[in-house]
Amino acid sequence: MILLMNNNQASNNNSPSNKTSIFFFGTSNFAAIILEKIIAEKLPISLVVSQPDRPQGRKKNIKPTPVKIVAEKNKLKIFQPENFDQTAIDYLTNLKPTIFLVAAYGLILPESILAIPSLGSFNIHGSLLPTLRGASPIQTALLKGLKSTGITLIKMDQQLDHGPIVCQKKITINKSEVYEELEQKMAEKSAQLILEKIQLIISRKIKLKAQAHSQATFTSIIRKQDGQINWNHSAEEIYNRWRAFHRWPKIFSFWNNKRIIFEKISFSTSNEASPKKPGTVFKTKNNQTAIQTKSGLIFPIEVKPEGKNIMSIESFLNGNQNFIGTVLLEK
Question: For residue 9, what pLDDT band results from cuts at 50, 70 and 90?
């Protein structure tokens, strides 16, 4: 259990109430953007709770969570429990919080934690609940090629993304939007929604609406292997996978038993006059490098061969001319 406190932290006189104590729970970049925005608007946060620092990258260096970075920059108290054991429960209870605000914490909070704040625990989720419950609502919206999604503020209960709705906001997804861009937009809208509704929560004037649980859909945890391209999918499906996994795990295939990450691509729903086997790399009549899919073509623009830096497809072909004519297969 890690507890960091700044003894020089000054009291904030801009609190919605001098008796209101708001704790923010979050870990990911989505949560960090929200935290930064609500701090900028002078919403006082008494404590930030984030997951412990974890090893990241190839070298497995211990790195702080994005939320911790924002909290430290703003000299906020930080609590990073390994688990919510009795020590953690007692610590949070003794601080007498009014509200827990939760955004992409990364773990399901037990009922013993949700029951601590006097006015309840509230979660901002990156979808129009009850659709896309779970860990990857933004990626899943992009994977599905949805034209719109949304955000939902709920009062939390013990089940995953299940509690009654405080409010929702629909958000349009642009056709070329990649994960980082949609995440930024949705996080900014989430911060706005929290700021609009926090005083109603404090004054007990919110009206809760039960979710239509029979209409619930669920997302899954994204894993590294999910980035592997199946060339038997359509070009549009592969393009949407690139959009969804643009930050991580990216999309990749294998050539000569080495991984090639496709950093930047475009696509066409049209085939050449004589469609080739899915995965075939070839030059079009316009001399573009293309890869055949089940239906449509993928045009690689930038690639990252295993062990090398990102380069244009032209630079890659200069040293790998036999790439043309290859059929990319699953490893």
Answer: very low
| Separation between Cα atoms, residue 216 and residue 162, nearest integer Å | 9
What are the φ/ψ torsions at residue 24 (nearest 5 degrees)? -110, 125
Q: What CA–CA distance (Å, rounded) separates 36 from 53?
A: 19
Q: How does the average pLDDT of the chain come out, rounded?
A: 92
> Do 199 and 234 have their domain in common?
no
Instruction: Give the span between the Cα atoms of 71 and 34, in whole angstroms.
Output: 12
pLDDT tens digits for range 180-202: 999 999 999 999 999 999 999 99
CA distance 233 to 253: 13
Q: Which of 191, 215, 239 is the last residue of a domain?
A: 215
The answer on 234 and 206 residing in a single domain is no
Q: Do the Cβ atoms of 219 and 132 come closer than 8 Å? A: yes
What is the model's pTM? 0.91
Residue 250 token pair:
């990216």
β-strands 78-80, 47-49: how paired? parallel
Section 209-217 average pLDDT: 97
